[in-house]
Structures are given as structure tokens and as C-alpha cells.
Write a structure and sequence with these properties.
The chain is of the alpha/beta class and about 280 residues long. The protein contains 10 helices and 8 strands. Bound molecules: zinc ion (ZN).
Amino acid sequence: MNFIDPHIHMISRTTDDYQRMAYSQCAAVSEPAFWAGFDRGTAAGFHDYFRQLTDYEPKRAALFHIRHYCWLCINAKEAENVSLSREVIAMIPEFLKKPNVLGIGEIGLNKNTRNEATIFQEHLDLAVKTNELILIHTPHLEDKYKGTRMIVDMLKNDRRVNPARVCVDHVEEHTVRLALDNGFWCGMTLYPTTKCTPARAADIIEMVGTDRIMANSAGDWGVSDPLAIPQLIQELKRRGHPESTIKKIVYDNPLAFWRQANNWVEWPTETAAAGKSLAGSKS
Ligand SMILES: [Zn+2]
């Protein structure tokens, strides 16, 4: 089954991972801007990082016929440095017209500090002024519920934000409703050590249904698995879910969310498929 991994940090993965993902029928990935495993010292460092995300990485993915998209921001961990964050945010508009850019992300909170919240609001302001899609990182483990609550409140307090253009990522059992009930899309992260296992993600789907929900590996420089989504597909098959339900979560939903992006260009295969079904409905 074709799948999309809507959250994976390919710059931290080897080319072998692209190859294995291609063999497993990965059609596309999106790569949010994030922490590099260390705090970067200069805005120039981020400028090069954004060039890597918008120029180099799509070419590496294309070698394996995988489409590569990305999101731009300074992540919450480095947002503690407010002056550096402002320099980085000022640089983002220069990259927004690059064809693989889907929007602003992954913005959010890490330790739920005041500086993080300030920089979150400034990203949000840029996103609404430029009408970009927004990808939200929610904090891990014990900070998750409080951080998700704070983020949802900040989003709802800004009347310019359209929830249908926002995806709240890394949801778990206790935060998924906060995202969905407020009209946002949401992402479940399948991670071997923390976050969801494929079985927990399947349980969540059985609890909340299949609307506005997707899954990702969040593969990065830590212990993580770029083939986590194929594992979820297997788990859902094992539980007897129909192919159409599984495809909705691992392919149709991320695609529907991305299609709202300002730079979106429809995939030739999808146009052909839509044409075929239209033709089919006439006969
Ligand atoms: Zn991430």
C-alpha cells in the first residue's frame, strides 16, 4: 500500500533509509524544521539549513521517486534564544515560495516557557499574515497535556487562525480530543521508545475514528524507525480494518491536508486517478 510519512527529519537519515522507504511504497514525506541535536549559534546556520530542506533534500528523495516537502521555523528548543529566533523568523519569507514548502512548522512548545510562547506567537503571526499552513509540535511526556492545552488556547485566542489549516502533531490518548474537537487536524507519532506504538495508534483510531487524523514516524537522529507507518498498516490489517480505512489514514488524509498549501501542485498520478473515477461515474 502506498503511504505518506508527513513528519520525518530526513536530513538526519541515510540514503539507505530513502531506499528502504521506497521499497515499502513510500510516495512522499514532509520534513518539518527542527532541532539539529545541538543549539545552532547563528542565523546563517539556519539559512543553510533552509537551503538544505528546500534544495538539496528534495533531490535526494527524488532519486527514489519519493516526493519531499518541508516546513520552516525555528524549533521550540532553540526558541529560548529570542533574538536569534527573531533573526530566523525574519529570514523565512525568502523561502516560502520554494516549491516544496508546505508552511510554518514544527512550531510549538518544549518546556512550556515564556520565551517559547513568545516565539510561538511570532511564528503564528507570520503564518496568518502569509496564509501558510501550520504544523504544531506538542511537548513530550509529562509536559504534553499542559503544553497542548496552552498551544490550543493560543491558537483559539487568535481569531485569524483557521483550525482546518493547522495540524497538531504528536497527539496521544489524552490529547487527541483537544486537537480534533477544536477543529484541527492531528498527527500520531510512532516512536520506538516514547510516544505511540503502532498498537496504541490503532487503539486511538478505533477510539476517535478516521477524520482529520494521520500517522508519522518522526524519524530523526535519535532511535526511530522510518518504516513505522508500514508497521501501523500491518497492525490495522491484522485487526481487520478495510483497506480504504487504512489508506485514508496513511495516504488520503495527509494529502488532503497538504493540498491546502499555497505552493501545492497536484500530482500527475492523482489527477489521472481523479479523471478516471470521474469518467467512471459518467458511464
Ligand atoms: Zn519532528
